[in-house]
Design a protein that fits this description.
This is Malonyl-CoA synthase. By secondary structure, the chain is of the alpha/beta class. It is built from 14 helices and 24 strands. The longest helix has 17 residues. The protein is globular and about 65 Å long. Bound molecules: methylmalonyl-coenzyme A and adenosine monophosphate.
Length: about 500
């Protein structure tokens, strides 16, 4: 057996071939046998269009069973899966494709014309498409293809996926994840969260980030579980399906939105076993309200694209709100100062981590990779943390200048560069302020060039950003000032801006 993660999945799939793998809201179901067949045909299609082992396959499509099959087909064909958020605009996609140089790009047919030009310019030789209902040039004529039955041999350290994560400099970096990284994390989570026969996962997360793909899907696949598959989070649909589910994973916004509903009740979740939250801090208040309403203690865990999951509150011991629990069994964590001095319990510093889940570095960026690792192999997460006397990890803030909105990361620098490039903008500062629904909301302060003050409007700047940036990165509000608040060193005082504008979205849903 090689190190290809798909071989491990196949063992489970063949043992469960008659069992349901995916069920859509309208009841359409694929068994594990049908899933295996579809994945084999898609792997054949990828090979047919010239994909070779180690080639990147970039995919920017809406969530569908076929999108999940394509992900698995990449593994079977020995390719490297490169998921892209469907919110990314043309200019953003252009950057990812020119950086990663994929052999094949699968896009949404509704954007095929725009994206085919971009992909062509980036040197992509095979451009296919897939719509939200599973049709497109990727799947055309699939039934006539013989399913690939073999799994391309891969070393455990070979790349399985590249996931882009934005960076402090404004440029996204491709985190390279190996088959070992994904497999170790999936097995660890499967065990730690007690996956068992009969578990049904309510899957409402997007498929193009670590949470929905490697955490939710991989654990369910390893368990041979059924996934109730929603194209996106929709409180009505979640409420309708919860009585048939056993496990749900979500970002805090999911839980905030459910609690707003009067029909989200104790009785509705009688069949549930586990609710997991992550990607952004879950407010202790939300945790308490959820427990009061349902009797369930949400299990909060912590992770990042570069390492998958790192810590988790326990399944069978006390889950502590406001903490992210203990390091996963095969993961080491420590808290250190900027200079690398390791700190004691209860002292606040930057969390550093090491384990089989830790990525192989940033694609094409060896210097950036080197900067973020200690000589003994620990990775510097950029999250401020402390480990308390009982060993629970608390994330207490971020050393990196990062906004997390509804579970999506936004690096202010990228938004500032976009604003600064707009005619009439002298400079800008982008910061996050509290938002009831999204946790934090992207907000900007802009200084106009002399004489151009009247040419700039809030709406004009937001619209201009939207042509360049994904919607979730686009500022929800823009304020104007004569100068940015700076300290004596000339550094923009973002903490000051966050405090000054903290009430901007008060009451916003
Ligand atoms: C959508 N919009 C947002 C967000 N999502 N604005 C700010 N933050 C967001 N997260 C904007 C759109 O641009 C649009 O704006 C408007 O909201 C409606 O869009 P729609 O897609 O209908 O929004 P929604 O359905 O309400 O989506 C909110 C959501 C979604 C359900 C919270 O964003 C979501 O599923 N988030 C999950 C993210 C995730 O999976 N993160 C994991 C990353 P306009 O109308 O103005 O254009 S992995 C990770 O972080 C690590 C590894 C970890 O630990 O998990
Ligand atoms: P990403 O770059 O999308 O992988 O996001 C990773 C970042 O999300 C981490 O570095 C943390 O800042 C944040 N994060 C993930 N889970 C949690 C959590 N449970 N509590 C606080 N922050 C979290």
């Amino acid at each position: 057996m090689s190190g290809n993660l798909y071989e491990s999945f196949l063992d489970v799939f063949s043992a469960n071939s008659g069992a349901p793998a995916i069920e859509l809201a309208d009841g359409t179901t694929w068994t594990y046998g049908e899933l295996t067949d579809q994945v084999g045909r898609l792997a054949r299609r990828l090979v047919e269009v010239g994909v070779e082992p180690g080639d990147r396959v970039a995919v920017q499509v809406e969530k569908s069973p076929q999108a999940l099959f394509t992900y698995l087909a990449c593994f079977q064909a020995g390719a490297v899966y490169l998921p892209l958020n469907t919110a990314y605009t043309g200019p953003e996609v252009a950057y990812f494709l020119s950086d990663a140089r994929p052999r094949c790009f699968v896009c949404d047919p509704r954007r095929a014309e725009e994206l085919a030009t971009i992909a062509g310019e980036a040197g992509v030789t095979s451009i296919l498409n897939l719509d939200p209902t599973g049709f497109g040039t990727l799947t055309d004529g699939l039934e006539a293809l013989a399913p690939m039955t073999e799994v391309v041999e891969r070393d455990p350290d070979d790349l399985a996926a590249i996931c882009y994560t934005s960076g402090t400099t404004g440029r996204s970096k491709g985190a390279m994840l190996s088959h070992r990284n994904l497999e170790s994390n999936a097995r660890t989570l499967h065990g730690t969260w007690g996956f068992q026969d009969g578990d049904v996962l309510l899957h409402a997360l997007p498929l193009f980030h670590v949470h929905g793909l490697f955490v939710a899907s991989n654990t369910a696949l390893l368990n041979g579980s059924k996934m109730l598959f929603l194209p996106k989070f929709d409180a009505d649909q979640v409420i309708r399906l919860l009585p048939r589910a056993r496990v749900m994973m979500g970002v805090p916004t999911f839980y905030v939105r459910l609690l707003e509903r009067d029909d989200f009740t104790h009785e509705l979740v009688a069949n549930m076993r586990l609710f997991v939250s992550g990607s952004a801090p879950l407010q202790p208040e939300t945790w308490r309200q959820f427990k009061e309403r349902t009797g369930f203690e949400i299990l909060e865990r912590y992770g990042m694209t570069e390492a998958g999951m790192i810590t988790s509150n326990p399944l069978d011991a006390e889950r502590r709100p406001g903490t992210v629990g203990f390091p996963l069994p095969d993961v080491q964590v420590r808290v250190a100062k900027q200079d690398g001095t390791v700190l004691d319990r209860d002292e606040i510093g930057i969390l550093e981590i090491k384990g089989p889940n830790l990525f192989q570095g940033y694609w094409n960026k060896p210097e950036k990779t080197a900067e973020e690792f200690r000589p003994d192999g620990f990775f510097i997460t950029g999250d401020n943390a402390k480990i308390d006397a009982r060993g629970y990890v608390h994330i207490v803030g971020r050393a990196k200048d990062l906004i997390i909105s509804g579970g999506y990361n936004v690096y202010p620098k990228e938004v500032e560069l976009t604003l600064d490039a707009i005619d009439g903008v002298k400079e800008s500062a982008v910061f996050g302020v509290p938002h009831k629904d999204f946790g934090e909301a992207v907000t900007a302060m802009v200084v106009a060039e002399a004489g151009k003050e009247n040419a700039l409007t809030e709406k004009g700047l937001i619209d201009a950003c939207r042509t360049q940036l994904a919607g979730y990165k686009t500022p929800k509000r823009v304020f104007f000032a004569d100068a940015l608040p700076r300290n004596t060193m000339g550094k923009v005082q973002k903490a000051q801006l966050r405090t000054d504008y903290e009430d901007t979205f008060q009451g916003a849903a």
